[in-house]
Inverse folding.
C-alpha cells in the first residue's frame, strides 16, 4: 500500500510518460500532416494537370466547333445557292411546259397542213404526170400524122414554147409550092386555140369548138386543109 502511494505520487515518472506520449502524438500528427500535404500536393498537381488537359481539350473542341460552324455555314450557303438555282430552273421548266402546251396545237396544225400540202402536191404531181402522158400521146399522134400528111405537103413547125405552125402545100393546082398554114395552141386546160390562119378562110371557130369537144386533131387538120382547097377550087 505504501509502495502504491509512492508510485502514484511520483510526478517525474508521470511527466515523462506524458511527455513521451505527447511526443508520439506529435510525431503521429506530423506524419499525418506530411502525408496529407503530400497527398494534397499530388492531388493538386494531378488536378492542375487534368485541368490543363481539360482546358486544351476544351480549346480544341471550341476550335473544332468554330471550324464546324464555318463548314456548316459554307454548306448552308451552298445549299441556299443550289436551292435558288433549283427554283430558277423549276420556274424555267414551268415556263417551257406552258409554252410547250401553247405550241403543241400549233405543231399539230402545222403537221396537218404539211400532210394536206404533201397530199395536194402528190395529187398535182399525178395530174401533171397524166397531162404530160396525154401530151406525149398527142405528140406521138401528131408525129404519126406528120408522116401521113407529109405526102400531102403537110409540115409542122414549133414557133414558140407552146405554139405549133401547120403548113400545107400541093393545094393550089396552079402553084404546088404555095403555102397555106395556121398556128394552133393547147393550153393547160386542154383547150385548143388558133392564133393565125393564112390565107384567111373565114370563120374557123366552129372547127375549133368541134376539136375541143371531140379532141380529134387529125379530123381538124383534114377539115382545115379542105377549107384551104375550097379557096382555090
Amino acid at each position: 500500500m505504501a509502495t502504491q502511494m509512492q508510485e502514484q505520487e511520483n510526478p517525474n515518472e508521470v511527466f515523462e510518460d506524458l511527455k513521451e506520449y505527447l511526443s508520439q502524438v506529435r510525431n503521429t500528427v506530423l506524419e499525418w500532416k506530411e502525408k496529407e500535404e503530400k497527398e494534397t500536393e499530388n492531388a493538386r498537381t494531378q488536378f492542375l494537370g487534368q485541368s490543363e488537359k481539360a482546358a486544351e481539350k476544351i480549346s480544341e473542341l471550341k476550335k473544332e466547333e468554330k471550324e464546324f460552324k464555318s463548314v456548316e455555314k459554307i454548306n448552308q450557303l451552298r445549299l441556299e445557292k443550289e436551292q435558288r438555282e433549283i427554283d430558277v430552273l423549276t420556274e424555267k421548266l414551268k415556263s417551257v411546259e406552258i409554252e410547250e402546251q401553247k405550241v403543241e396545237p400549233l405543231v399539230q396544225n402545222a403537221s396537218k397542213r404539211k400532210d394536206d400540202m404533201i397530199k395536194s402536191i402528190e395529187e398535182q404531181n399525178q395530174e401533171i404526170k397524166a397531162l404530160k402522158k396525154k401530151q406525149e400521146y398527142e405528140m406521138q399522134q401528131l408525129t404519126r400524122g406528120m408522116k401521113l400528111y407529109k405526102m400531102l405537103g403537110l409540115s409542122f413547125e414549133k414557133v414558140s414554147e407552146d405554139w405549133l405552125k401547120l403548113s400545107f402545100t400541093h393545094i393550089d393546082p396552079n402553084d404546088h409550092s404555095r403555102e397555106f398554114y395556121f398556128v394552133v395552141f393547147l393550153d393547160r386546160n386542154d383547150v385548143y386555140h388558133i392564133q393565125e390562119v393564112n390565107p384567111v378562110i373565114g370563120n374557123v371557130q366552129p372547127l375549133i369548138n368541134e376539136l375541143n369537144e371531140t379532141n380529134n386533131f387529125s379530123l381538124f387538120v383534114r377539115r382545115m386543109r379542105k377549107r384551104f382547097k375550097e379557096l382555090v377550087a
